[in-house]
Amino acid sequence: MSNYPKVVNYCMELVKTPSLSGSEGDVAKLIKEFLSAEGIDEVFIDDVGNVIGVLRGRDDFTVVFEGHMDHVPPGNLNLWKYPPYEAKIIEGVIVGRGTVDMKGAIASMIASVSYVSKLKDLPTTYYIFVPHEEIAEGIAFKYAIEETLKTRPNLVILGEATNLNLSIGQRGRAVVEVKLLGRSSHASMPSEGINALVATAWLVGKVVELSKKLPKHELLGKSTIAPTVIECSPKTPPMIPDKCRLVIDRRFILGEDEDSIVSEIRCLTDQLVKKGLAIEAHVGIIDEELTTWTGYKLLAHHYFPAWLTELKGYVLKVKEALLEVIKEAKVITWRFSTDGVYSAGIVNIPTVGIGPGDESLAHKPNENVPIKHLEKCVKVYFNIMKSLGGFISKN
Question: 8-46 in b/e burial notation, b at 16+ Cβ within 10 A?
């Protein structure tokens, strides 16, 4: 590695190692190597492919630092000023796919280990880096906590990008699938058939109308709904398609649940069938079998709940520790979804997020993270553990 500070070296090496969902093996081994170099007490890779590092400390309080190893594809390479896996440093930022989402945070967490390990009154601390988050958040994280470690941490700190602010929640995410059945005919005689594509077009219009009526939360923002995929068959120009599949992305706030989300779409498809635009309609949340880089198979139900963590107790200590390093830090919520859907949304473990970089750069060409953010995050993660250790010992 180069003569840059170790957190920069870690980030650059991670970015230079592509790790698309399901292909995180090389970066997992690299992370394991880096954690070992930092003096972690124990580090291993579990059946699913999670990299888990352990700093042994007090048994009465456990903290988890968590991040995901996978990233989305780079997309159109012509839109990148520099190759996405080159990890080029330009004017104080590292440019490359995965820098902000979220190898910069992983590098900062790793680089903080050697400092955190020297603290007195250290809570037992786990560093968990998971695969497949971009496809189904929380699935691999759940396995690490419930199956591998068989523990319940007192606090989870996610490294997703927050621009060095403190995130305390997010909207939920549901992936809704609608299957419409019509009747095929020759395209020269469309009245002889029931066009599933026309039915889908009607439904898309109603979904757009529905988006204007969705509720809003003071902190989490507005619920949204967006059609994202249409697939029809048969796919031949002179033939009316008799089947169509529509995928809908639904982001939702506290108070909405799986039944209400599916019901609002089913209400529209009931109207569609009643109008004679389709013969049948089926609505449901997508279930998918995922194969991780180790070959392990996980079932993902694509419904991920909204969550919001209260600012009290040791969560308040996290905020205070952040403000000691980043005086201008604010309390925010994420616009996207994270592994907190499991820790906070399902099992109610206090969960917050602090990470380097601007979340709006995630998944874009020329994604980048400021080097100053990486260095500050190392200090923040250390200061959090220092503050927590002192707070726990007094209480």
Answer: bbbbbbbbbbbbebbebbebbebbbebbeebebeebebb
How many Å apart are CA 356 and CA 93, to the nearest integer?
11
Peptide bond into 109 cis (omega under 30): no
- Class of the CATH-defined domain 6-170+307-394: alpha beta
Write phi, then psi, for 138 (nearest 5 degrees). Answer: 90, -15
How far, in Å, CA of 307 to CA of 203, rounded? 29
For residue 319, give the H/E element and its range: helix 314-325
Note the pTM of the prediction, 2 decimals: 0.93
Q: Which of 174, 178, 173 is nearest to 265 (CA)?
A: 178
Domain ranges within the chain, ordered by starting residue: 6-170+307-394, 172-288
Distance CA 191, CA 169 (A): 50
Residue 254 CB neighbour total at 10 angstroms:
17
Please state, rounded to an integer, the average pLDDT across all residues of the chain: 96
Q: How far is C-alpha 204 from the geometric centre of its chain's CA atoms?
A: 26
CATH of domain 172-288: 3.30.70.360
CA distance 283 to 179: 7
- Give residue 4's pLDDT: 67
Is residue 297 within 8 Å of 290, Cβ to Cβ?
yes
